[in-house]
Specification:
Helix content is about 20%, strand content about 20%. The chain has a 5-stranded antiparallel beta sheet with strand order 1-2-3-5-4, with helices on one face. The termini are far apart. A hairpin with a 7-residue loop joins β2 and β3. It is globular and about 35 Å long. The longest helix has 9 residues. The protein has one domain: HIT-like (HIT family, subunit A), CATH 3.30.428.10. The protein is built from 3 helices and 5 strands. Bound molecules: adenosine monophosphate. Adenosine monophosphate (AMP) binds next to loops.
């Protein structure tokens, strides 16, 4: 299931360029095109799901996979010990811009204290 107009669906399918750092049959992770930190990676489901609001209980395994790939990625990026931040924006108040669920993985520098 993909949305023909979705840029992240196109990246997952290899139809748009991106620096892929991880990919399996369920999820993909690639570098953000406008990084907000020295390391800025987006972790996305391969299937088109607009945001966390559209996850269902049938997505338990997929939702888990979005997080369980993190240790391998942060180990490869060399930030497992220093730490990092994970953020999932949803909807207009969440300032979501791309409506294909994604988790931002930010690291390589101390994050700001503010989350709002
Ligand atoms: P959000 O505001 O949570 O929807 O974040 C969307 C993110 O996608 C932003 O950080 C953008 O810089 C990033 N982005 C948009 N287009 C691309 C692209 N073609 N490749 C990689 N990252 C992208």
């Amino acid at each position: 299931m993909r949305d023909p107009d979705c840029i992240f669906c196109k990246i997952v399918a290899g139809e748009l360029p991106a620096e892929m750092v991880y990919q399996d049959e369920q999820v993909s992770a690639f570098r953000d095109i406008h990084p907000k930190a020295p390391i800025h990676i987006l972790i996305v489901p391969n299937r088109h799901i607009p945001s966390t609001s559209e996850l269902s209980l049938e997505d338990d395994a997929l939702a888990g996979r979005l997080l369980t790939v993190v240790p391998g990625i942060v180990e490869a990026e060399g930030i497992a010990q220093r730490g990092y931040r994970l953020i999932a924006n949803a909807g207009s108040d969440g300032r979501q811009e791309v409506f294909h669920l994604h988790i931002h993985l930010l690291g390589g520098q101390p994050m700001r204290h503010s989350l709002g």
